[in-house]
Amino acid sequence: MLGIIWGIIVILFAFWVIGLIFHIGGALINILLVVVLVLVIWNLIQSARNKRK
User: Fold this and answer.
1) Where are the domains positioned within the chain?
2) What is the pLDDT of residue 53?
3) Burial of 13 (0-12, 13-18, 19+ CB in 10 A)
4) Which residues of 19-29 are buried (b: 16+ CB within 10 A; e: fewer)?
5) What sections of the protein cross the membrane (predicted)?
6) pTM of the shown model
7) 2-33 pLDDT tens trace
8) In terms of pLDDT, which residue wins out, 9 or 45?
9) Which residues contact residue 37 at a Cβ distance below 8 angstroms, ignoring those fewer than 6 apart?
10) Which of 18, 19, 26, 37 is the most buried (most CB within 10 A)?
11) For residue 39, which of 27, 28, 31, 50 has the smallest C-alpha distance?
């Protein structure tokens, strides 16, 4: 499951960087950045829970 989440994070981050470089998407770029940040935080919380078990 964590592999899928990291894959999504990488894809969203790549879209954000491409949009930032080529000035595509406007506000969509910022939404993608927020989604990436939420997924990273959620992933860190999940991995911390898995280490305690």
Assistant:
1) 1-52
2) 66
3) middle
4) beeeeeeeeeb
5) 5-22, 28-45
6) 0.59
7) 688 788 888 888 887 887 788 777 777 777 77
8) 45
9) none
10) 19
11) 31
